[in-house]
Amino acid sequence: MVNKSKHNKGNSVKGVLDKNTSLGRDCHAGQVAPDRHLATVQKSAPMKIATWNVRTLNQKGKFENVKMEMTRMKVDILGLAGVRWKDADMITSDGYKMVFSGGNLHERGVGIMLTPNIAKSLKGFWPVSDRIIVTTLSSKPFDTNIFKCTRQQLITTTQKLRHSMKN
Predict the structure, then answer these.
(1) In degrees rounded to 5, what are phi and psi of residue 45?
(2) Quick check: 73 pLDDT over 90?
(3) Residues of the chain with pLDDT > 90: what percent?
(4) Number of domains the chain is built from
(5) Which one, of 1, 21, 25, 3, lies nearest residue 11 by Cα?
(6) What CATH number has the domain bearing residue 122?
(7) pLDDT class for 164, splitting at 50, 70, 90?
């Protein structure tokens, strides 16, 4: 009597003699194949954030143009430089919210514009100066702060930090 081993050296799996046999189907019929039940809905969609130097929003139709460009480019949060509006305030138009911080004159100014969906989570905003504004959005697991500042303000702040770190 000859003792035949069921060990196939070709694929090194015991009990498999045929090369076309699939262990996943034959031995583990109760398991789900990895491509059968893929998740189709994300818990949260990615946000698109952008910046734009608008030079001024103090012209007729410019604000509406910014809203149209946000929709066209599918931007959720838009940081604006060169707004050139006086004081600091929040305005709402067609569900879009814009918070801005300007000075006493129609010079400089920054703002943050939010789509209607993101605007629902706006908790507050703080106009620091005519070059810096901070907003807080309600999010999970913690709130999100968004800072908008001009390039010159960023350079000046960075230089001050470097100087204070040296001392």
Answers:
(1) -80, 150
(2) yes
(3) 25
(4) 1
(5) 21
(6) 3.60.10.10
(7) confident
27: three-class secondary structure by DSSP? coil
- Per-residue pLDDT tens for 84-105? 888 889 999 999 999 999 877 7
Task: Identify the bridge partners of residue 101 per DSSP, sorted by sequence position.
Answer: 88, 110
Specify whether the CB–CB gap between 40 and 85 falls below 8 A: no
Least Cα distance to 122 among 151, 152, 92 occurs for: 92
Q: Nearest to residue 108, comparing CAs of 79, 86, 78? A: 86
pLDDT at residue 17 is higher than 70: no
The type of residue at 156 is T
Band (pLDDT 50/70/90 cuts) for residue 31 is very low
> How many angstroms separate the CA atoms of 33 and 28, rounded?
10
Q: Identity (one letter) of the amino acid at 27?
A: C
24 falls within a domain: no
- 109, 102 contact by CB (below 8 A): yes
> Domain range for residue 90?
49-166
